[in-house]
């Protein structure tokens, strides 16, 4: 049995080896018949010569195109084209030279197959790079450039139809549906185009909503998110239908998807739902100053960005803390600017029992009034809160309207001024004091000193 299995494996390996050898032999024959000929060699030499001249002329061509890009009479679109062409000055110069050589060879009746191929590839490269400038996203621009140039290169060498035929023959079945590799490629291209269009449409709508001054930022963000999600789902469904996939097939996977959401994607779904809850309730929105208790302690800062998974809070340290949306829903959040940016701060102050309380309160109020960020209205207040174990407890209350600039720093400024004023008026900030009462007699023994050398001890009872 093992010998039979080894024989089958050996046969499979031999078949694969023969197929690979056959393809390599065909490739060698094609290379030998097309490249190792006199007609091919002088065309390759002409292409190499034009490349050398293009490298020498690229700086002049670039300066010429940059000069044309600064001509306002040409229009904005032409100026952008000239700027793009200046960025690829060498391929542009090479294309011009190859086109000239191709026409000369054709006029002389010489073969131009390789020259025409080089001319087609260079022209495709220049056209694709020029068209890609109208795609705002750098990522999608790069994807378009690579896909389009690959298709143009295959078409130039006559292999595009061969590759498409092979993709159509390669596939698999999902129930009654036959899915080929060519259908997948078409679907991916269609999805990419539709998603790009959805993103462009969403960006246009978002720019339009930015001009609506009466609409809150949270509502604008909610509308753009829902629109983007709807358009992306619609783009995927259209692409699947276009490649011949019956959407009812996905009903089979609904149970598995539900289990996956319930187990592995539970946190993701919670954050997604929490993000829309925050936007609808407007409890937290971009620009708010919030304080929330996290695993690493309280986080205080300004909300910079809200996504479907987290809220980015820029702290006073200059770092951005990414807080999951479900944390903001389940924990207590202090929003310093929810309905009004004006907020009150409280600072405890302790003075000794022999202090003039009216003077101490007056000095505290003066310190608050002299701090630039403290508001003059509502007015500050200094209250006497009680008799402490070591001091008379005062509390200074004042108002600010810029909590995004920090609250601890303004409290520090006020305390510093209070300290200076207390020093000027000899007002003491007492240390904590405790009285010790002895309930039994205690003897204190004095040890002998080095001066008298006496070993006698003295006792004193209390």
From TrEMBL:
Mechanosensitive ion channel MscS C-terminal domain segment(s): 347-428
Keywords: Cell membrane, Membrane, Transmembrane, Transmembrane helix
Membrane topology classification: Multi-pass membrane protein
Residue ranges constituting the Mechanosensitive ion channel MscS domain according to the UniProt record: 268-338
GO molecular function: mechanosensitive monoatomic ion channel activity
GO cellular component, one term: plasma membrane
TM annotation in the entry: 40-57, 88-108, 114-135, 147-167, 179-205, 226-243, 249-265
InterPro entries: LSM_dom_sf (IPR010920), MS_channel_C (IPR049278), MscS-like_channel (IPR052702), MscS_beta-dom_sf (IPR023408), MscS_channel_2nd (IPR006685), MscS_channel_C_sf (IPR011066), MscS_channel_TM-2 (IPR011014)
Pfam families: MS_channel_2nd, MS_channel_3rd
Domain of life: Bacteria
Location in or out of the cell: Cell membrane
Family stated for the protein in its record: Belongs to the MscS (TC 1.A.23) family.
Name the record gives this protein: Mechanosensitive ion channel-like protein
Species this protein is from: Rhodovulum imhoffii
Top-level taxonomy: Bacteria, Pseudomonadati, Pseudomonadota, Alphaproteobacteria, Rhodobacterales
